[in-house]
Design a protein that fits this description.
By secondary structure, the protein is of the alpha/beta class. It has a single domain, classed as 3-Layer(aba) Sandwich (Rossmann fold). The chain is 32% helix and 14% strand. A six-stranded mixed β-sheet has the order 3-2-4-1-5-6, with helices on both faces. Helix 1 packs parallel to helix 2. It is globular, with a radius of gyration of 17 Å.
């Protein structure tokens, strides 16, 4: 009998503090809300009892909170990978969508039409993000081959990994509704491939609610 494929548990952090709702925070280190902490606890309870070889976060406080909930009961060491941080928004970071529209009319809409190739000033495109993130996802799977791995990360990080697993163009990632606290389970296929096993996202007609 062949061994069960390695699984990758991909968790998005919980809801951020209300002060950041409607703001583009990207890779800024913003705090969780009380509700966001409870979302992280619910995600951890869903994985209770499962053996994990490693739990890795991006190092930002909102992912470290959820990662520690998974590590502590298993006695796992803290593993942090800054290359798993959220999409870098550059000059847009900290602005509301209304503020950005006032400063640069149409800029966010242009990004949303072609996010794979479009960068904010000083920021990244989704292609840049995928080139940063996907090698690290494969690294952590290889480093713990034969054991399941959990990554506690960010919305756009989750989306680019899902696009890779589903064979979707990155420009379609804006249609994936990846909500705070969501959990996705992928199987590792061969040395580089990923396949989605179970998920909690919908395909929507427009952008996800939170621009991050």
């Amino acid at each position: 009998m062949s061994a069960r494929p390695q699984r990758l548990f991909l968790l998005r952090h919980g809801e951020v503090d209300a002060a950041w709702h409607g703001r583009i925070y990207g890779a800024l280190d913003v705090p969780l809300s009380a509700g966001g902490k409870e979302e992280a606890r619910r995600a951890a309870r869903r994985l209770a009892g499962l053996e994990l070889g490693a739990v890795v976060s991006s190092g930002l406080a909102r992912t470290e909170f959820g990662a520690e909930l998974l590590r502590e009961p298993r006695g796992l060491p803290a593993l942090v990978d800054p290359k798993l941080r959220e999409l870098e928004r550059g000059a847009w970071a900290g602005l509301t969508l209304a503020e950005l529209e006032a400063q640069a009319p149409g800029a966010f809409a242009a990004w949303a039409r072609q996010p794979a190739a479009t960068r904010s000033p000083g920021g990244e495109s989704l292609t840049d993000l995928a080139q940063r993130v996907l090698p690290r996802v494969r690294h952590w799977c290889r480093a713990h081959a034969g054991r399941d791995v959990a990554l506690v990360v960010h919305g756009w990080v989750v989306r680019v990994v899902l696009c890779e697993a589903l064979g979707l163009a990155l420009d379609l990632s804006t249609r994936l509704d990846v909500r705070t606290g969501d959990l996705f389970v992928l199987r590792r296929q061969g040395p580089t491939g990923l396949e989605l096993e179970s998920f909690a996202c919908d395909v929507l007609p427009g952008l996800a609610a939170h621009p991050a």
